[in-house]
Prior knowledge:
Number of helices: 6
Number of domains: 1
Shape: globular
Mean pLDDT: 94
Number of strands: 17
Order of helices and strands: EEEHEEEEEHEEHHEEHEEHEEE
Oligomer: single chain
Low-confidence stretches: none
Distance between the termini: 35 Å
CATH architecture: Alpha-Beta Complex
Radius of gyration: 17 Å
Structural class: alpha+beta
Largest sheet: 6 strands, mixed
Strand content: 25-35%
Amino acid sequence: MTDVIPAPAQARLAVRGGGTFPVRRVYCVGRNFADHAREMGAAVAASKATRGQPVFFMKPADALVTGEVVHYPPATADLHHEVELVVALGRDAPPGILDREQAAQLVFGYGVGLDLTRRDLQSAAKQAGLPWDTGKAFDESAPVSELVPAAAIGELAPRRLSLAVNGEERQAGLLSDLVWDVPDILHELSRLNALRAGDLVFMGTPAGVAALHPGDTCEARLDDAIMLRCRIAAARVP
């Protein structure tokens, strides 16, 4: 059958060492660092036994930005940065709910990204009991680094995630402080969706989220293993 419109290009991420990673879906985790949950006014569980269920939302794959320029979005006066570990899945999940070992085997590699948020729109949606889509799932809302194969990163827990804006560190957290670690999150996602090769998971952000403005430069890091640099440009002319 012939397409009646040109097929859109599939989002792809560069892979360190060569090749590209075609992206299928982009899952995101909210409130996955306790300090960030507190700064957003959310309750924080006292232990893993009482942490409840993770908060999930999604971004479209075409919201990913792989270049160094990110345009300030329309309809907001309060754009916030949220630095995150990005997990890339290289295998389809088997049928059923994943256990931790199965979950770990799905991971192809890691990156770092920014979950850019129109905080004013998100806050208004929360107050009205509405979905967060307008605050989270807009064009150019997900700058992301190249992907690094998991074997080159090794153990995640001791690694430090950070973001500097205009050379000043604003966010930092150890991955050991995640409320739900990577196998936990993949296990929980498998209860809701069939996970597939090409899926990305943005794992949540530590405290320190704040506003970005045109002209700001961002440098996100996972220690010295992965780095993302980008600059906030003026809004596109309609």
